[in-house]
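Hi there,

I know you've been waiting on this one. I reran it after we fixed the sequence typo, so this is the corrected version. Both the input and the resulting structure follow.
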Amino acid sequence: MKLASRMGRLGTESAFEVLAKAKALEKTGRSVIHLEIGEPDFDTPAHIAAAAQEALAKGHTHYVPAPGVPELRTAVADFLERKNRLVTTPDRVIVTPGAKPIMFFAIMALCEEGDEVIYPDPGFPMYESITRFAGATPVPIPLRESNNFTIDPDELASLVTDRTKLLILNSPHNPCGSSLSQEQIEAIAKIAIERDLTVLSDEVYWALQYDGAHRSVLSVPGMAERTILLDGWSKTFAMTGWRLGFGVFPQWLVEPVNRLVINSVSCTSAFSQYAAIAALDGPWDEVDRMKAEFESRASLIVDGLNAIPGVSCVRPGGAFYAFPNVSELGLSSGELSDRLLNEAGVAALPGTAFGDYGEGYLRFSYANSPANIRAALAAFAELAGKVAHG
């Protein structure tokens, strides 16, 4: 039996591979501190779970409209306006089982052989993987430490060609924890408008922005007509396992993407959509508490990493990732992450899991307790000392 050739173009997400290795190690009796997986270590707020239970009791267990129940699509539009993110209408909102389908549907609807997609590197690996799967050409724009791991608009302009179909943005950013400035956003928007680009703005970490209010390309006049907003409930409300995401599409993309939904997942589970409404309309105090805790942990892990000889780390502006430079330790990112897991019992990801420009870096998710973060830092420091002395 032979697989279709396109399967050779489809990558994977290394976080789940490292998680599997770590779990296998734990089965042998080893203790592992998990800093590899990107999900909040908080419980879903109780009022959201209660709304799901109520929906089940009311019989919301059947098929619903492919783009989402009308009540949720309206709640999304109202929420975005209330949070000063976007003024839109419910008919442009499509709800999906997780946010990844929004990436998949957007790229599959827009891109084909000969088209180019510009995406951040280091960046979420699905951007490149789905682009290749669609037959298009992924074009990385480097995020350099010297530029605080953000896009240089001049370099972006140099990469745009007549074949460029889509530009992917992610701010706050995974894996670097960086965030775009308003000046950068306006410069990027100018390029998108002048070169007639569609933009996919991945804003799943928008609520975890530390350095002031969230900044989006959608704030620039004229960008809503050419921008796909990708968001969801996983990171903001600690709902990763609920698999709930949404996209807000330019009007001309709504029908094609709706067809993709019908041909793939049919619809998102009914009862979970009523829980999603409760999340958007409910109290915000637990989100604020989670954000404050992540910001405190960011200081803890960055200060700890910078105290390790041979390691340096830029302070993140959002999300819950630290992206330290480990090049002075003299090992590749892959070698160091393997030794960190197998010798020190700390699961982290090599920077190369996020693209070629991630070489020389590791990604730590600080979605873990301060006690575990301190223990991981001590174990890393001990390993770094061994590596430095051969």
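Quick highlight: The chain has a mean pLDDT of 96.

Best,
R. S.
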